[in-house]
Amino acid sequence: MGTTEADAVQDIRFARSADGVGIAYAVHGSGPPLLIDACWLSHLQFDWQSPVWRHFLVELGRVATVIRYDERGHGLSDRGVTDHSLQARVADLEAVADDAGFDRFALMAMAQGGPVAIEYAVRHPARLTRLIFYASHAGVPQGASQDQLELDEAFQSLIKVGWARPTSEFRRVFTSMMIPDGTEEQMKWIDDLQVMAVDAETAALARSQRQLTDSSDRLPELDLPTLVVHSRGDRMVDFARARHLASNIAGARLVALDSENHIVLADEPAWPVFLREVTDFLAPDRVSGGVESTAEDVTDVLSPRELDILRLAAEGLDNDAIAGELVLSVRTVERHLQNAYAKLGLQGRTARTAAVARLLSHT
């Protein structure tokens, strides 16, 4: 049974990046792991009840164990960060992926997360089962026109002058580009998210450093199933950049959504199309990852460490005792158990009992 909106919960955790920056990430849902590469604006707690994002979180949580994180300097991650380079952001993704504990996972790049996901996929091909780009791109091509340079300068000025103002007239410019078809409630939420997620100085600094990033030359190196999903009328990231991704990644499939919104909203026809395409694309992971497996293949589904922990749980040891036996932290034991439950398609209070029963029926 899938997660319902009423019982959906998220587990917020923290990973430490290579330079010591703390990166907040959250895990929810059940099924094969899907790690979402951070987009420009996020706040793990504020997003959870969002009239703009909530349907993404609920519905994706029904088909996958969703891992998402706040970019450095944003949301619940460490603030006051000055290094927003590609290398630093890739290190953040590496830290979250390692801390979450999944051996392999699907990766979804959203918006500005594209270059980071591309670089990660090139460096760690064995970790990924498949790759999704949603409203994303490979980076900012160098040699921009004078018009583009002037537009970028105008955006930077809007951030510096209007981001922190108590009224939202300046922030509404960005909001209107993200969800031009949004209701006033939805637009106001994006207005508020901007100041909730990041301060003006960091927003401007991070954007200026992202403008220097282009991973287009890495695209031919990607060799895994890839889905590119993009709104035809996206005003934040032009549809041409989705075509660029799909045409330069071998075997990639491009799905054009009939929408003007950068963030597809729950009540527009494009939303069920997006959900169906992503669900179908993840289906092979759902089978091979063990969500639909039986008791006979538990030992093939779980990692050796997860099996060790589950065997001790079957002996009646609690998490503290398991941690002592294996010389691990209690948090690490809990994380491995949660990952095991996700792989087995289990959730809720009975997950531990069901996992142990499945293991015992096999041995």
TrEMBL record:
The organism of origin for this protein: Microbacterium pumilum
Domain HTH luxR-type residue range list: 295-360
CDD domains in the cross-refs: LuxR_C_like (cd06170)
The protein, known as: HTH luxR-type domain-containing protein
Classification via InterPro entries: AB_hydrolase, AB_hydrolase_1, AB_hydrolase_fold, Hydrolase_4, Sig_transdc_resp-reg_C-effctor, Tscrpt_reg_LuxR_C, WH-like_DNA-bd_sf
Pfam families according to UniProt: GerE, Hydrolase_4
